[in-house]
Amino acid sequence: MFSVFLLNFVVKSVICNDENHLLFPDGFLIGVASSAYQIEGAWNVSDKTISNWDHFVHHWPEKIYDGSNADVTTDSYHRYKEDVDIINNLGVDHYRFSMSWSRILPKGHSGYVSKSALRYYHSLLDELDAKGIIPFVTIYHWDHPQSIEKAGGWLNDLMPYLFASYARVIFENFGHRVKYFITLNEPSVFCTMAYTTASFPPARKLNGTGDYHCVHNQLKANAFAYHTYDRMFRKKFKGKVGIAYQCMGSFSKDDNDIVSDDLAFEFECGWQAHPVFSESGDYPEIMKKKVAERSRAQGYEKSRLPTFSTFWVKFIRGSADFLALNYYTSRLAKPLQRSSMVNWPNDEGLEYEFDPKWGSAQTPWLKVVPQGLHKLLKIIRDKYNRPTVYITENGVSSSSGKEDDIRIHYVYSHLKAILLAIKDGCDVRGYTYWSLLDSYEWFAGFTYQFGLVHVDFDDVNLTRTPKKSVEWLKHIISTRKLESPV
Ligand code: GBH
Question: Model-level pTM?
Answer without folding.
Answer: 0.96
